[in-house]
What does this fold into?
Amino acid sequence: CPTSQNTLFLGMGKVKANLGVSSNIRKEYEEHEEDTAHAHEEEEGAALDMKLLTGTWDVKWYLPKLKNTELVFALQGMFQDNLNRGEELLIPDANLLDAGVGTMLKYDMEPFHFQAGIRYDMRKIQVNDYVHTHDGVVESFAGFSTSYSSVNGALGGTLHMGNHMLLRLNFASGFRAPNLSELT
It folds into this structure.
């Protein structure tokens, strides 16, 4: 699966970009009793045949340092497309988009180091309708679309108390949106 890691130097600042694409194909076959009435056996498709395509990005812009201050802007995200072709279903056909944008400030004033950050995240999920008939039994559920978002922050500091001792104090909020398995 292709990935790309690049650093672009802009004067005293820089932009780091990590981009990637991966494809995951999961197939599971069920065992069937041999039919003695047929001389040849026809190969059946996989009972579970799931294809997941994922694209990710992580871009950080490090502004030039000003005396004791460093500022970083970040853009991160992921896109997933899940497609099922078999009889069994682990995760439904769906599209998922995650995107986050944030900034972090570092300030150094010996012996104290200060960090603060804020970040906005969103997740959008589109699940397709599902209808499947197997041995006369119909399984189905209605598709849906939902989204989640959150603003989080972090504030912390480090005090150097000698060559081998640090005192750290951090406060942060967090958020995790549900995944496809939890929603379906």
About this structure: The two ends are 28 Å apart (CA to CA).
